[in-house]
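seq as requested:
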Amino acid sequence: MKRSSIAAVTHNERSIIAAVTHNERSSIAAVTHNERSSIAAVTHNERSSIAAVTHNERSSIAAVTHNERSSIAAVTHNERSSIAAMTHNERSSIAAMTYSERSNAA
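struct tokens:
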């Protein structure tokens, strides 16, 4: 009986020690896992934010570049239209003057 009792106590103590050790290890593992998950999540979010900022900056630069090109094209088109109109008007005036001069000379 004494041996059985001692064995039972020893077994229980070992079981308790094993259970405590297991729980501590599980807790440590869980904390480590959660910390890693949090770090991974932060890293992912930071990368996502950086990617989003980079994308938005590129989009803005592209939009500005597009708008600048459109404006330059519009100015160039308007200048060409104005030059063409002036040339047309000048030609019309010269033609009208020439016609009047010819009529007077005749």
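DSSP finds one helix and no strands in the chain.
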